[in-house]
DNA sequence: TCGCCAATAATGTATAGACATAATTGAAAC
DNA sequence: GTTTCAATTATGTCTATACATTATTGGCGA
């Protein structure tokens, strides 16, 4: 372990506090003067650490007011993660999540991804269908780690989408998405009210906060009804939508 | 126009030089001392600008050696852009690009995306099929802006993939990808040697360098043979593949 | 000629202080 | 009470300097 530069140490300690949830979104950080006393260093050193966090989008800084943990908007710039509920509503349609099943369980030992998500802890398994104006748009099976997100146990998802709730309440820092085109199997086709073997977009996404798994979701989109759009680039140059 | 902080001005001027291609990948930047003389400021100010560029991945800095424009690896961290050639080879298979057509032309006035890509300039249109061990994996139609990438005119793509060549030679800064599941039409199915109406992953990607369009590509992947994987997150926490 | 070592040139980190800027707070004036 | 203005406080920028770190370069010696 090489001795970390002081500004890096300050940076990473604050970052850890944010990612672990010890500092919640909206919380105010100590002022630069507080921190320079705490670490016994010059203000420029503290400033460098905080500036880096601000550049990374982890905190917001306001003159006279102080520095605050940023609200989870992490993803918006990087990828339009499909928050179906929001997108359907934006298109002027009526959104509904039809809950088909819900169960707390231990991870299936035969499923590597489930075990990786929950470790020894429990999972909440949710199954349902997203509707736009009453028409099925996508079917999803979702697992949420109950140790990472205990508050989800008290949520009722008949009508509202679990994905939208998670996006609002649990910031993620890492995500991996697998995308494929598949022919709908009989069960999925029935739930989506489409002919069997229709082309569907299959999306499997896992998200983490730091090293802790948050959720794993598998979605089948009705091929004709949905496109995924992903944008990459610096915010700076992303003029005009 | 508010007066930009000096370190921001330095930063953005160098950034512009890199994005415009005036500073090519591998080129050496002036030293901090040169820049502090050029801008008449303290070294810390120059340092802040260069550190920001390094954090953004636009330049690499090496002690004693200097600062250099980074090789285009921009994407690797953000998204595994499917460089099919590389991926096929990594799987231990033999890769081949079968060139079906190649033509320089003006953008089709009826196609908004073509016009947006090339403006008044010319396009190179390339059509071909990607093969892994002789089996068709994907069909693509690609347009490349000849004003943005004049060197491509001298390239021969029978055998090698135009996507791989572009990734190596032309760094992009912005990308937009549209992904959908479609049933293969007759012509596409024939080229991919699959039954008509097989589920295919359709990918349409546009890339830019700064505000200048580079390429537009439309690909049909054989559904059963290919998954797209996208990863998002800070490099820091992306331990272990 | 080859290999080692020291000088050197570049970035990396840190300090202490100065002044600028902006937003909030509280006090004074109406 | 309400409005206005000034003091305060926190961040933003910049300077000048010092020493640390590291890789290259060139020279010296075997």
What do these coordinates show?
- The structure is a homodimer of 241-residue chains.
- The first copy, chain A, folds into 2 domains: 64 residues, Arc Repressor Mutant, subunit A, CATH 1.10.10; 139 residues, 3-Layer(aba) Sandwich (Chorismate lyase), CATH 3.40.1410.
- In chain A, strands 3-4-5-8-7-6 form a 6-stranded antiparallel sheet. In chain A, strands 1-2 form a two-stranded antiparallel ribbon.
- In chain A, α1 packs across α3 and α2 packs across α3.
- The longest helix of chain A is centred in the N-terminal third of the chain and has 15 residues.
- Chain A is elongated.
- Chain A has 241 residues and is α+β, with helices and mostly antiparallel strands.
- The C terminus of chain A is likely disordered.
- The relative contact order of chain A is 0.12.
- Chains A and B meet through β6, β7 and β9 of A and β6, β7 and β9 of B.
- Chain A binds a DNA duplex (30 and 30 nucleotides) through α3.
**Total separate domains of chain A:** 2
Largest interface: A-B, 39 and 40 residues
Record field, number of beta strands of chain A:
9
Summarize model confidence as the mean pLDDT of chain A: 83
Helix content of chain A: 25-40%
How far the N terminus sits from the C terminus of chain A, by CA atoms, comes to 45 Å
- The strands making up the biggest β-sheet of chain A line up spatially as 3-4-5-8-7-6
- How many H/I helices of chain A? 7
| CATH level-two architecture of the largest domain in chain A | 3-Layer(aba) Sandwich
The main sheet of chain A comes to:
6 strands, antiparallel
- Structural class by helix and strand composition of chain A: alpha+beta
Assigned CATH superfamily of the largest domain in chain A: Chorismate lyase-like
From the alpha carbons, calculate the radius of gyration of chain A and give it in angstroms. Answer: 21 Å
Shape of chain A: elongated
Along the chain, the helix and strand elements of chain A come as HHHEEHEHEEHEHEEE
**Poorly predicted ranges of chain A:** 74-81, 234-241
Q: Give the strand content of chain A.
A: 25-35%
CATH topology of the largest domain in chain A: Chorismate lyase
- Write down the CATH class of the largest domain in chain A: Alpha Beta
Oligomer: homodimer
